[in-house]
Specification:
- The protein is α+β, with helices and mostly antiparallel strands and about 500 residues long.
- Helix content is about 30%, strand content about 20%.
- It is built from 14 helices and 16 strands.
- Strands 1, 2, 3, 7 and 10 form a five-stranded mixed beta sheet that branches. Strands 4, 5, 6, 8 and 9 form a five-stranded antiparallel beta sheet that branches. A two-stranded antiparallel sheet has the order 11-14.
- A hairpin with a 4-residue loop joins strand 12 and strand 13.
- Helix 5 runs antiparallel to helix 7.
């Protein structure tokens, strides 16, 4: 086990590989399987009624499907009965013609020479059928009925030989025995692979000859009841083992672990370690491929019941690198070891992951105090709602920024001056809406720096808020108290003459 730890790390520490002690499940009464471990289907057809004749119409397939003892019995009986019947017919011809009493008379010409009784007639048939031809017994030209019987015997013998020998050849060349050299693991396991919960089992090929175009399929056999109340015994559902990705097409040179990902489309979506003990199902595994030596299709089957599915286990590695080749240790083929696996179903895990995580809530008072202080003393924390400078022309904004930097530099040797920031500007622009007259004083803009001494740092938030200038009024629909002239083309045209000259210089 230390080799496994060195290979897989401490996260895959082996807990126990003994199946009898590693998985403690309540003892269940052994129930009837749908498919045995050796692949035999436990289904018997009864009460066929008049449908039995269908087996006779397909006699060749019926003989091939029979067991070997019945095939051998039919083979021996067919040849024995055919030989006896044909020997009896030759004896009847000799008896009717009177050849039995005159067989030793050299002046008498019999139908078949040297046939005196039934054993001699039987030997004549065997020599003729097997084309041995000892030359002691033969048909003469004085027996036309013997010639006709000889032709019939040749045709019948060819038909019987073709039928029985062909049946035996097909029976012997069937790939059922080839399926016995394809191995399946005794148990299936459920554990995580690539962060996903998966159902896995192992397959292997004991022969060096390959299985061409090997493909594997899985069926879930489980009884269920439809919403309409219909009960479906032994309902079959497909288990995806990589049909969409091509993982079901196997290159079966070494043992492979077949994986079924348990997701929302899987029948095991709500299966957990606890519910596994109360479930009743059977997983039928079907492996198909073409035998490389004979070119015939081979199919191997097995099944896993709920008692043979181990939660939180993984298969032991069986591959090792030798000098010039890879070695497979089939003594570890069926062994498993425990790994950390969540006992919850995929459905429960998805529900837990979809729940929102609780986030700490800050006090509104603390938030308000912090935001106010940042709005006053920070150059980056002013909300976008109080940015009147963004409405000024670009040249005027650059002038304001440049003058603001000079104010901050010159104020370091004197009394500390801080400006209330709006965005990236160090002083506030306010539009004066007071009506000084109907002349140039209407809609005049002023730039006004906010100066604060060292005592401003000790003031309360309320006092600082009192010294802040009013924000630029936002136009609202309705009657405008301070209408602007409609003839205004650009914002620079409404500035005082001094500011217009400064703007033109830059």
């Amino acid at each position: 086990m230390s080799a496994i730890r060195r290979k897989f790390g401490e996260d895959y520490q082996v807990v126990n590989t003994n199946r009898g002690m590693s998985f403690s499940a309540p003892a269940k009464r052994k129930r009837q399987r749908f498919v045995d471990k050796n692949g035999r289907c436990n289904v018997q057809h009864g009460n066929l009624g008049g449908e039995t004749g269908r087996y006779i119409s397909d006699l060749f397939t019926t003989l091939v499907d029979l067991k070997w003892r019945w095939n051998l019995l039919i083979f021996l009986l067919t040849y024995t009965v055919a030989w006896l019947i044909m020997a009896f017919m030759w004896w009847i011809i000799a008896y009717i013609r009177g050849d039995l009493g005159n067989g030793h008379d050299e002046s008498y010409t019999p139908c078949v020479a040297n046939v005196y009784n039934f054993p001699s007639a039987f030997l004549f048939f065997i020599e003729t059928e097997a084309t041995i031809g000892y030359g002691f017994r033969y048909i003469t030209e004085k027996c036309p009925e013997g010639i006709i019987l000889f032709l019939f015997q040749s045709l019948l013998g060819s038909i019987v030989d073709a039928f029985l020998i062909g049946c035996m050849f097909i029976k012997m060349s069937q790939p059922k025995k080839r399926a016995e050299t394809l191995m399946f693991s005794q148990d299936a396991v459920i554990s995580q692979r690539d962060g996903k919960l998966c159902l896995m089992f192992r397959v292997g090929n004991l022969r060096n000859s390959h299985m061409v175009s090997a493909q594997i399929r899985c069926k879930l056999i489980k009884s269920r009841q439809t919403p309409e109340g219909e009960f479906l015994p032994l309902d079959q559902r497909e288990l995806d083992v990589g049909f969409g990705t091509g993982a079901d097409q196997l290159f079966l040179v070494s043992p492979l672990t077949i994986c079924h990902e348990i997701n929302s489309k899987s029948p095991f979506f709500d299966l957990s370690q606890r519910s596994l003990m109360n479930e009743q199902f059977e997983i039928v595994v079907i492996l198909e491929g073409i035998v490389e030596t004979t070119g015939m299709t081979c199919q191997a089957r097995t099944s896993y019941t709920e008692d043979e599915v181990l939660w939180g286990h993984r298969f032991l590695p069986v591959m090792s690198l030798e000098e010039g080749f890879f070695r497979v240790d089939y003594s570890q083929f069926h062994n498993t070891f425990e790994v950390p696996t969540p006992p919850y179903s995929v459905k429960e895990q998805d529900e837990k992951s979809s729940l929102p995580s609780p986030s700490p809530l800050l006090s509104p008072t603390v938030l308000d105090g912090r935001s106010r202080r940042e709005r006053i003393f920070s150059l980056d924390g002013v909300p976008q709602a109080i940015e009147p400078m963004s409405k000024l022309p670009s040249k005027l904004q650059r002038i304001s920024s440049k003058n603001g930097k000079e104010v901050l530099k010159t104020g370091s040797s004197q009394v500390t001056e801080k400006a209330s920031s709006t965005g990236d500007l160090p002083f506030r622009v306010q539009r004066l809406g007071s009506l000084l007259g109907q002349g140039e004083a209407e809609n005049q803009l002023q730039l006004k720096a906010i100066k604060m001494g060292p005592e401003a740092h000790t003031r309360s938030a309320g006092e600082l808020e009192h010294h802040r200038l009013l924000p630029v009024p936002v136009p609202v629909p309705g009657h405008n108290l301070n209408p602007l002239p409609e003839s205004i083309g650009r914002p620079e045209d409404n500035l005082p003459p001094k500011l217009r000259r400064m703007n033109a210089d830059h």
